[in-house]
Amino acid sequence: MFINAIEGISKFTRPIMFVSRKYDGTLEPGLSTLFFVNDTGSAITCAHVANIIAQLETINNTFAAFKAERALIPAGKGERAMLQSLEAKYGYKKNSVIELLILVPAVGDTTSLSWVNHDRLDLAIVTFVGLANKQYSSHATFINEPAKIKAGKYLCRYGYPFPEFSNYRVNPETDALEWTNDGSSNVPSFPLDGIITRYIGTSQQVDGIEMSTPGLKGQSGGPLFDEDGLVYGMQFATNHLHLGFDIKDFPITTEQGKKEKVSDSAFLHVGHCVHVDRIKEFLQQNNVAFFE
Fold first, then answer.
1. Residue 160 has pLDDT above 80, yes or no
2. DSSP character string of the chain
3. Which domain holds residue 159?
4. Would 292 be classed as within a structural domain?
């Protein structure tokens, strides 16, 4: 049902690839999603995703300053105490994020990124400044008939929830994160269908759309669309509804024939998407061209 729509959506939807480095040396890959709303480099994603992009320069510059001071610590007696003092100065602990690496592939050449967050919703506009050699094609087309956004409407989401890529490392000479030509660069897309269950917001204004299925991690910032490829919203969160089917010490027989007692709490995981009307209003407020 969504075959043609997904082919169209994929032309202007892109992953945001993240790698974070913690002070204990752990490297963690992650993904989010954005999609373009015009041909001049304007895209939308979640504000919580844009906030990660905004932290990159500060986090990396802070680590560069830390490394410069660390290099001045003389080897020998007192070295460990001086390093601990420096770690305390910078607030570095085992799980502190000390470096970030971010890549949005297959977009084109750009001089910089700029962004603006919605003052209330988890929504942001990201602009690829000075875009040249554009590598995405087409753009989102938003639905202009809000009356069609009703409970029971069958829709689909699209994004990049599974960080299978491994083409990154810490350069041993520079002690810095970098992308490499080795390892896998695979970032598989993943569509997920569902029906509209409820509206999110107040009686005065609908801010969002609730879906019967979860938005997967990494799909944040991805489009919500119908079988014609018209965009109804943007995935931003997943809510967990307690179903009240709690069981405690419930007797079962396992596949191996053993009798055991299990306890469980059941939840329904439902996706939350920013409503298309709020997206269009935000684009208009910031003089960003879009199509409907």
1. yes
2. --HHHHHHHTTTEEEEEEEEEETTS-EEEEEEEEEESSSSSEEEE-HHHHHHHHHHHHHHHHHHHHHHHHTTSPSSTTHHHHHHHHHHHHT--TT-EEEEEEE--SS-B-SEEEEEE-SSSS-EEEEEET-BS----S--BB---GGG--TT-EEEEEE--------EEEETTTTEEEE-SSS------EEEEEEEEEEEE-SS-EEEEEESSPPPTT-TT-EEE-TT--EEEEEEEEEEEE-S--EEEEEEE-TTS-EEEEEE--EEEEEEEEEHHHHHHHHHHTT---B-
3. 3-285
4. no
Q: Domain total for the chain? A: 1
* pTM, to two decimals: 0.93
Helices 47-70 & 79-90, crossing angle to 10 degrees? Answer: 150
The verdict on residue 176 lying in a domain is yes
For residue 128, what pLDDT is reported? Answer: 97
* Residue 77 backbone dihedrals phi, psi, to 5 degrees: -60, 135
| pLDDT 10s digits, 100-125 | 999 999 999 999 999 999 999 999 99
- In this predicted structure, the answer to whether residue 203 has a pLDDT above a threshold of 80 is no
In the predicted model, what is the mean pLDDT of the chain?
96
Residue 290 placed within a domain: no
Terminal alpha carbon distance of the chain: 22
Residue 31's domain is classified under what CATH number? Answer: 2.40.10.120
Q: Which two tokens stand for residue 198?
A: 């409820």
Q: For residue 291, give both structure tokens.
A: 């199509």
Q: Please name every residue paired with 112 in a beta bridge, in sequence order, or none if there are none.
A: 129
